[in-house]
Design a protein that fits this description.
The protein has a 6-stranded mixed sheet, with helices on both faces. Strands 2-1-4-5 form a 4-stranded antiparallel sheet, with helices on one face. The chain is globular, with a radius of gyration of 18 Å. Helix 3 (102-112) runs parallel beside helix 6 (152-165), helix 4 packs across helix 6 (152-165) and helix 6 (152-165) packs parallel to helix 7 (182-195). It starts with a strand and ends in a 5-residue tail after the last helix. By secondary structure, the chain is of the alpha/beta class. The protein contains 10 helices and 10 strands. Bound molecules: adenosine-5'-triphosphate and magnesium ion. Residues 43-44, 174, 204 line the site of magnesium ion. Residues 5-248 form the ABC transporter domain. InterPro entries: AAA+_ATPase, ABC_transporter-like_ATP-bd, ABC_transporter-like_CS, P-loop_NTPase, PstB-like. This is Phosphate ABC transporter ATP-binding protein PstB.
């Protein structure tokens, strides 16, 4: 189920603005990869190219290749809707549908995919997804109450349950803990550790402790200045990136001596 990602010489544009230039990297299945780097260096932009969410912005486009298990996501025959099912995304702010129940929130992605399901199958999927997101015990007695009634950390786990309910192969997370308290943050980090047994996970984070706690590999992005494209500066095992990076800029960034 888990998939390998290979990016070859990717340039990412917003109209004529080259936001990210020349990224090549490989991500192994069942690993966690952290993207780090200063604000504006293109972490979110690059992340969104991994499930074709970038191109929903008018004028946005890419050059280069993103291969998932050898298949280029950007081949003209590929349906972006299928790509987004295969490569799920969790956002910075938990975004449950406020008027929907907890249960319907979990099923929202599956329903979008038009899957007709018996009530028993739906109930099973809800339980399995909430178990997978480590939320089941906290919500099993109130599945019909609104998702918006949960705490921020619970809402983020609900969004993760919604993402895994469609059985993706890769999960992208853009600063999934930045709106959460430290306890909820640790709960999400524990969950990422568990999800990695089944999924390939990529997480953007500004929290260096988090990157070093949760990830196997770390990619450091940087920009030379305003209006310049972001670039991948260094990519290696997380322990190497934090203890013995090859590039001075990486060392400055991970040790907090930056700017
Ligand atoms: N919708 C957009 N249209 C035009 N330019 C954009 C758009 N979104 C982002 N950019 C530009 O692309 C560059 C990279 O932005 P991006 O949001 O990817 O950075 P980031 O590394 O995720 O930053 P942060 O850490 O603040 O989230 C920035 O110069 C930004 O202004
Ligand atoms: Mg961002």
């Amino acid at each position: 189920m888990s998939k390998r990602i290979e990016v070859n010489d990717l340039n990412v544009y917003y109209s004529s603005f080259l936001a990210v230039e020349g990224v090549s990297l490989e991500i192994e299945p069942r690993t966690v990869t952290a993207f780090i780097g200063p604000s504006g260096c293109g972490k979110s932009t690059f992340l969104r190219t991994l499930n074709r969410m970038h191109e929903v912005i008018p004028g946005a486009r890419v050059q280069g290749e993103v291969l998932i298990d050898g298949n280029n996501l950007y081949d003209s025959a590929v349906d972006p809707v299928l790509v987004r099912r295969q490569v799920g995304m969790v956002f910075q702010r938990p975004n449950p549908f406020p008027t929907m129940s907890i249960k319907e929130n979990v099923l929202a992605g599956v329903r979008l995919n038009n899957k007709r399901m018996s009530k028993a199958d739906a109930d099973d999927l809800v339980e399995k997804s909430l178990q997978g997101a480590n939320l089941w015990n906290e919500v099993k007695d109130r599945l019909d109450r609104p998702g918006s009634g949960l705490s921020g950390g619970q809402q983020q786990r609900l969004c993760i349950a919604r993402t895994i309910a469609v059985s993706p192969e890769v999960i992208l997370m853009d600063e999934p803990c930045s709106a959460l308290d430290p306890i909820s943050t640790l709960a999400i980090e524990d969950l990422i550790e568990e999800l990695k047994q089944e999924y390939t996970i990529v997480i953007v984070t500004h929290n260096m402790q988090q990157a070093s706690r949760v990830s196997d590999k770390t990619a450091f992005f940087n920009i030379a200045g305003t209006g310049k494209p972001g670039k991948l500066i260094e990519y290696d095992d997380t322990t190497t990136m934090f203890s013995n990076p090859s590039v001075k800029a990486t060392e400055d960034y991970v040790s907090g001596r930056f700017g």
